[in-house]
Amino acid sequence: MLRHWWVPVPHRSFVRAAVVCAALLVLAGCARGPARGPGSADSTSATPDSGGAASHARHGTIVTEWVALGNEPFWNVSVMPDSIVWRTPEQLAGVRFPPADQLTLKERHVWRTSRTGSPASLQIIIERGTCGDGMSDREYPYTSRVRLDTLNYTGCAEQRAVWTDAAAGFTFRVPAAWEAEWDAAIYEGAEAATRGSGARTVVEFTCQPVTPRTRTEILLAVVVLDRAGWAALRAEEGPPPGELLGERGDRVWVAGLPQSQPYPPGTPDAQRFERMQLTIDQVKHAFALLPAP
Predict the structure, then answer these.
(1) Strand partners, 54
(2) 195 contacts: CB under 8 Å, gap ≥ 6
(3) What average pLDDT does the structure give for the chain?
(4) Which of 21, 136, 178, 236 could anchor a disulfide with 201, C-beta 3.0 to 4.6 Å?
């Protein structure tokens, strides 16, 4: 968890952590409404730790990602507006292909793309139809067929919501458990500096409480630090100053997670917060840096 980034929340779900950010995840202020939709503009809202004062935050954009997946062997491919990424257990970072136009006929969706290198070509066909992954009771609403060069794969598919912000420099796949019970906001400039000890950008994802007029709580915070600032934090005594998510050039992206339950035990708010909490492995799986501009 972040050691020197101070987030004034009840029961101190987070501890202090000084973070210098540059391009980052959205800050969630869930009590102020449902998850922000595509194209959300900058807005002014009161945040849990502002004492009611207005805060200016950008909320980022929600886009739809198609995901096809299968097993034996395990594989998945993500279709985003800016890229198509093929992944296997041996290639967790993924092989990135250029984006492709979506060809749709009734309930059939097709993408074809190619790149220099190996693998060089990728074709994805997703069709409406109930599909089971063969390893759990979960059912998917689509089937998939993928051709990677000369290899053919069959599996299931679904659509997922992905939060993204070009200035923040990364995407975050919205967990299914969050449903519409979250919000996000990006703090930059002077306000980010006050929240993260000189941070350029701070993004917080928060939970929307069940009980009206109940304080919102942070589920995940992502900060972007200068590499020198990150090195200085790591050199200090004490627990690790956050979990490293990614790095590029002179910047690093770091995650902070709550360390305790902020709501009274057994309450609807506590039950919702517990259901929405993530592990660091889940965060790393959902997080991805955007291609360098």
Answers:
(1) 46
(2) 5, 6, 7, 187, 202
(3) 79
(4) 21
